[in-house]
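fyi for ur records
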Amino acid sequence: MVRMALATVVIASMFHACGPFQGTRFKATAAASPFPAAAPANPKAEARAAALARAQLWEPTNVSAMNIKRGPAGPGAFPFRATVLCDYVAREMSGASPKFACRIAPDDEVKVKFGGTNAEVYAEVAATRLLWALGFGADRMYPVRVICRGCPREFAGIARENDAYLFDPAAIERKMPGREFPGEDGWSWEELELVDEESGGAPRSHVDALKLLAVFMQHTDTKPPQQRLLCGDTRNEIKAAEIPCARPLMMLNDVGLTFGRANTFNANFKAMNLTEWAATPVWKDPQKCVGNLPKSLTGTLKDPVISEKGRRFLANLLVQLTDGQLRDLFEVSRVTLRLRAPDKARSGFATVEEWVNAFKQKRSEIVDHRCA
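which gave:
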């Protein structure tokens, strides 16, 4: 009897080890293992994904009180059409539009975009001022006159005394304050889908509102370097929180190819083009709330589907802009120096009122619409 009992215990033990409870047994053994758990395959990628999940896109502003002509104040700001004296810095600049680096003071080097036929001189001022007034992240662009000492003659500035050249119109860029997420080269618009409200990120209404605003402006150049992931934290806060980005913000870095018609090759003459912008509808498929934004070869945003919450959120922001603010928006952008259709010399120069009317018409397409 004892032998039979022992045999029964042995058989039961074998069944327990090999039968349906095997996973439970191994799980308990693994939990009690003295060996450390394996490190994550890519800690940097996981940290970035966590930052994107918690990212914000917008912060409240008193829209109707924003001084669009003056723009963002603070250190480094310039009044409208200020004359800025600087020394040329021989530095290779990215992008196809005319620009150069210039030093205003020993510790103050700026990027200057210039040229009467350069759409970015006008469009980037308009786009950044609009984003700023509505509460979305963007760099600061100041429309100025630049006197550059030592600039190359081939830049075709107006010659001045002492080997200096005048560039007018021109715009100086100031980066939006904040520390960039370490080692990253921007974000793609597909990554907006990683923003998670339950993780502390922006709500869906903000995500879709930003997409719809890109459609509204016809923001064509949406490759990843045109967007930045900023961290609003300081180094002490980083150490205390032990995370690489305590307050992440997804913002637009370069919006110079806007206010025209999005196109395959990001053509400069298609931007700040009143004829094209006024004729381009906001909705590609109004019934399905599909925004009308063709993707360029390098772009990452195409015909986004917009939720009713996103449409309503942006509409509520846009209607707060007064007629005076809209006039300021296009006056500070100096649209009267830009042909209605820059590729057609006989199109003539646009007026501020024409641009304001086009803006209001396109705004109505958003405000008067409803998404299922």
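The first helix runs from residue 2 to 18. thats all i got for now
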